[in-house]
Amino acid sequence: MAWGNRSNITTLAMEFVLLGLSQNYEVQLFLFVLFLAVYLTTWLGNVIIITTVITTRQLHTPLYFLLANLAILDITYSSVTTPKMLWDLLHKQKTISIPGCMAQMFFFHFVGGASIFLLIAMAFDRYLAIHKPLHYLVIMNQKVCMRLVVGAWLSGLVHSIMQVSMVIRLPFCGPNMLDNFYCDIPQVVKLSCEETYAVELWVVANSGLVTTSIFLILLMSYTVILLKIRIHVTVGKHKALSTCAAQVTVVSLTFGPCVFIYDRPFQKFAMDKAVSVLYTMVTPMLNPMIYTLRNGEMKGAIRKLMGRILCPGRK
C-alpha cells in the first residue's frame, strides 16, 4: 500500500506524510519554479552581503559584522526546510521519517532562535551607537561582538533543546498526515496518541509568549532610539534613521509570523501555510534587500565589489 493512502502509522513505520502546499501537479511545478527562484535569490543576496562585508575594510565595524552573521543565519534557516520542500514538489511520495522530522524541528528552532537573539544584539548595537557614541567602539569591541554572536547561537541551541525535548518523547501511533510542507511543533504534537495539553502549554509559553515579549521590547527600544535620533542627532541622521528603519522592518517580518504561529492554541487556521512560507522562505530573501536598499554605504561597497568581479583589471 502506498504511503499516501495510509491513515495510520505504527511505531515501526516511523514516517509522516507531508501534505504540502497543493495536491495539483501543475500547481506544484509552478511552485517549484517560484520557490527555487526564491531560494537561489536568498543565497545570492546573503552571500553578496557576507562577501562584501569580508572584503570591504570600511565595513569592518560591529554593525556590519552582526549583519553578515544575520546573513549566514538567513541562508541556514532557509536551507532547513526549502530543499526538502522543493524535492517533494517534484515527487508524489512526500514522506519524512520521524527521526528526520525531529531533526528538522531541532535545526529549525535552533537557527530561528539564534536569529531572534542576534536581532536583540543588533538592537543593543544601535542603542549604544546612538546613546553612547563616544564610547561605542570601546564597548562594542571585537571580543564583545564575538560574544554576542556566540551567545545568540547558544541561546538558540538551548531554546531548541527545550522545545524539541518535549516533543521527542511523545508516542506517535495515530494519524500520520502533516498538513504542511515541513515539520513544526504545532502540527507534529497534534499527531501524538497521548494527551498533549502540557506540551502545548509549554511551547506556547516558550515560543509564543517569550517571542511576543521580546518583540514588544524591541519595538519599544527602537521607538526610543528613533526619537533620540530625530531630536538629538544632527550628523549622519539620515544614515542612522535608515539603518534603524531597516532593522525595525526585519524585526517585524521575523517576529510577526512567529507570534501568529506560536502565540495561540495549536489549532488550524486558513493562513497558517501562507504565514509559514513567509517566514521560512520570503523573509530570509527580503532581509538582504531591505538592508541593502536602505544603506548607501552597503550599496556603494556592493557596486565596487561587483566592479572588481566583472572588471578585474579596473582599479
TrEMBL record:
The highest taxon in the source lineage is: Eukaryota
InterPro entries to which the protein is assigned, alphabetical: GPCR_Rhodpsn, GPCR_Rhodpsn_7TM, Olfact_rcpt, Olfactory_Receptors
- GO cellular component assignments: plasma membrane
PROSITE patterns linked: G_PROTEIN_RECEP_F1_1, G_PROTEIN_RECEP_F1_2
Question: Which Pfam families is this protein grouped with?
Answer: 7tm_4
Q: Which residues form the G-protein coupled receptors family 1 profile domain?
A: 45-291
Membrane association type: Multi-pass membrane protein
Spell out the molecular function terms from Gene Ontology.
G protein-coupled receptor activity; olfactory receptor activity
Query: Which sequence ranges are marked TM in the entry?
Result: 29-51, 63-82, 102-124, 144-168, 209-229, 241-262, 274-293
Where in or outside the cell it occurs: the entry states:
Cell membrane; Membrane
Gene3D superfamilies found in the cross-reference section: Rhodopsin 7-helix transmembrane proteins (1.20.1070.10)
**Annotated keywords:** Cell membrane, G-protein coupled receptor, Membrane, Olfaction, Receptor, Sensory transduction, Transducer, Transmembrane, Transmembrane helix
Give the record's family classification: Belongs to the G-protein coupled receptor 1 family.
What PANTHER family does the annotation carry? OLFACTORY RECEPTOR
Q: Can you say what this protein is called?
A: Olfactory receptor
Q: Which organism is it from?
A: Sphenodon punctatus
Q: What taxonomic classification does the UniProt entry list for its organism?
A: Eukaryota, Metazoa, Chordata, Craniata, Vertebrata
